[in-house]
From TrEMBL:
Origin: domain of life: Bacteria
Annotated Low complexity bias: 165-181
Protein name: DoxX protein
Transmembrane segments: 30-49, 99-120, 135-153
Positions of region (Disordered): 156-181
Keywords, ordered alphabetically: Membrane, Transmembrane, Transmembrane helix
Length: 181
């Protein structure tokens, strides 16, 4: 039997851990961006068909309030479907990613507003969301994913660096190119 390292892993375990961390550092942002794009597309497509999305009425009511009644009903529903589809396609393709993320953050800000605008429908008791409130609160995870993707973008001020984002750390303090002891 091989002796255990100070970290409690045999040498084969350390090699497997290093390979896993390297793989995660190389592909985690792409996987996160792709999965977020799929979620956006999955939520967007039903909005093209009246009554198919469970969020239709809430979305239409929210857009009507946010636009002061200028955009209502089916127009609001279709515009939201188009916006969410564009966000999905931007995430899935990686094209116009900064613009896509800006649109995503604006859309998410609008998505959170029913918690305040229609609080009586969103909460069953103080700090206890109803089903609509839960549907909206889950967007915090989508926002965190978008922030993570945004953080991986190359900064405009970096000169002499590759256009690729720097390798993300897979675990606190462990880079993909750092051997794991």
């Amino acid at each position: 039997m091989e002796p255990l390292s100070p970290r409690g892993l045999p040498p084969i375990g350390r090699k497997l851990e290093a390979a896993t961390l390297r793989l995660a550092a190389q592909h985690s942002t792409l996987l996160l961006r792709t999965s977020l794009g799929i979620v956006f597309l999955w939520f967007a497509l039903p909005k093209f068909v009246p009554g198919l999305s469970p969020a239709d009425q809430l979305a239409q009511d929210t857009i009507a309030v946010l636009t002061g009644g200028l955009v209502t009903g089916d127009t609001a529903r279709v515009l939201l479907a188009v916006l969410e589809t564009a966000i999905a396609l931007g995430l899935l393709t990686g094209r116009f990613l900064r613009l896509t993320l800006l649109a995503l953050f604006a859309q998410m800000a609008g998505t959170l507003t029913p918690l305040v605008l229609f609080w009586h429908d969103m909460w069953t008791a103080p700090l206890v969301p109803g089903i609509e409130g839960q549907y909206i609160i889950k967007n915090l995870v989508l926002i965190a994913a978008a922030i993570t993707i945004t953080g991986s973008l190359p900064h405009a001020g970096r000169r002499g660096r590759s256009q690729e984002a720097p390798a993300a750390t897979a675990t606190a303090g462990v880079r993909a190119d750092t051997p794991v002891a």
